[in-house]
Design brief:
413 residues, 2 domains, 6-stranded mixed barrel, two-stranded antiparallel sheet, 17% strand
């Protein structure tokens, strides 16, 4: 029997039980769709974050507290580290220490709840210097950004994002209004132009204040979460990193580099780190989605075993008129592969559709820079996994069918 005849018989066998075949592939459809959604949204998120980091410019270096993470436990330590202090900023600003530093901008940040009257809104506070607006390209639509004197005097002034102004005040002028930030009153002196997502969060839903005020009155800390150093030229990046390391080791009385309580990240380092994190998360979520594929594969095996039992007399008749074991094996194996491939194709289409709709929603809610992405690798993986599941879970039922005795099969009631 040639392949065409075997394929025709497999399709006929599936057509007899259309409803059962449709229900059988449902598990595969759900698993493949979930896999496509996870991979697509994961890559879109990675592209968004990487583009935001790259928009900061290659000259920018970020100093993080804590040693350079070598594992998950170090990452946790770095989030709680308090090694970056005011004396470090002063040391970095001395030209004799870091001659190629064009700008040194320390900042702190935290989620926060702000209130105006009876209105409450969740936001994100950024405390920085007066250079913060220039460093991160923040444009003021009305009013002005705070000044160096405000930082020195710990003045309770705030510049708010466009969405905060819109949600809390509507269309009226908000400059001069008073808001409360963690039981502290602050006067609004400016509203930013719409900007959307940036490397450190949603600008339109953030509030910016002098870091000195935020440290003392909002967060109750005396250290910085980050220090950004801008080199005067990309050619001086490595020299600037070396100068930063030498300056901070001297400031922290560190003689052994392996005991550094800080780490310096370039744009490329941040991109690689974000890429590693998003890839790992996508892999973990993909593994969770793959569980439904295993369940779907077991469903395929069960249905095929039932089908073999129901069609025992058919198998006996075919073998009695000359069908070989491999012909019967091929027929039932092809049926299993057709079921899983059909489920895989439907799952790919469903996953792509859901991802496209999710991207439209996220582009409006999260960021206009969010783009729909459908990795070719996800299509290849979806199709390949479907075929593999069909073969893996269809082989045992097909083998059982192939090894049935024609005499016993013909006597089966």
């Amino acid at each position: 029997m040639n392949f065409r005849d075997t394929l025709a018989m497999a399709l006929k066998g599936l057509a007899v039980q259309r409803s059962r075949s449709a229900l059988t592939i449902l598990g595969i459809v759900i698993g493949i769709a979930a896999l496509i959604i996870v991979m697509s949204l994961g890559q879109s998120a990675q592209q968004l974050i990487v583009s935001q980091i790259q928009s900061l410019g290659p000259e920018n270096l970020f100093i993080l507290p804590g040693r350079s993470p070598r594992g998950p436990q170090d990452l946790g330590e770095s989030l709680l580290a308090d090694s970056l202090r005011e004396r470090d900023v002063e040391a970095l600003r001395r030209k004799a220490n870091v001659p190629y530093a064009a700008r040194v901008v320390p900042f702190v940040f935290s989620p926060v709840v702000i209130t105006i009257g009876n209105e409450i809104k969740s936001s994100f506070i950024m405390g920085g210097t007066a250079e913060f607006a220039t460093a991160f390209d923040l444009q003021v639509a009305t009013g002005e950004f705070y000044r160096d004197e405000d930082v020195q005097q710990k003045t309770p002034v705030a510049v708010i994002g466009h969405k905060i102004a819109e949600d809390l005040f509507g269309s009226r002028d908000v400059v001069g209004e008073i808001i409360r930030v963690k039981n502290n009153s602050a006067r609004i002196i400016g509203v930013l132009e719409p900007k959307g997502e940036a490397a450190f969060g949603d600008i339109d839903n953030s509030i910016f204040m002098p870091y000195s005020f935020v440290q003392q009155n909002v967060l109750g800390i005396k250290y910085f979460h980050r220090i950004m150093v801008t080199a005067d030229n990309t050619a001086h990046i490595q020299d600037t990193i070396d100068d930063i390391n030498a300056t901070l080791r001297d400031s922290h009385s560190i003689t052994d580099p392996s005991r550094d309580d800080f780490n310096v990240k370039t744009q490329a380092d941040l991109v690689n780190t974000i890429g590693s994190i998003t890839t790992a998360l996508t892999a973990v979520l993909g593994a969770v989605a793959a569980i439904s594929l295993i369940v779907g594969g077991i469903g395929i095996m069960n249905i095929m075993l039932v089908s073999v039992t129901e069609r025992t007399r058919e198998i006996g008749l075919r073998k009695a008129i000359g069908a070989r074991n491999r012909d019967v094996l091929a027929q039932f194996l092809i049926e299993a592969v057709i079921l899983t491939l059909a489920g895989g194709i439907i799952g790919i289409i469903a996953g792509a559709g859901v991802t496209f709709l999710a991207s439209l929603v996220l582009a409006r809610v999260v960021s206009t820079a969010w783009h729909f992405t459908l990795p070719i690798s996800s299509l290849i993986i979806g199709t390949g996994v479907s075929a593999i599941i069909g073969i893996a879970f269809g082989f045992y039922p097909a083998r059982r069918a192939a090894h049935k005795s024609p005499m016993e099969a013909l006597r089966y009631e």
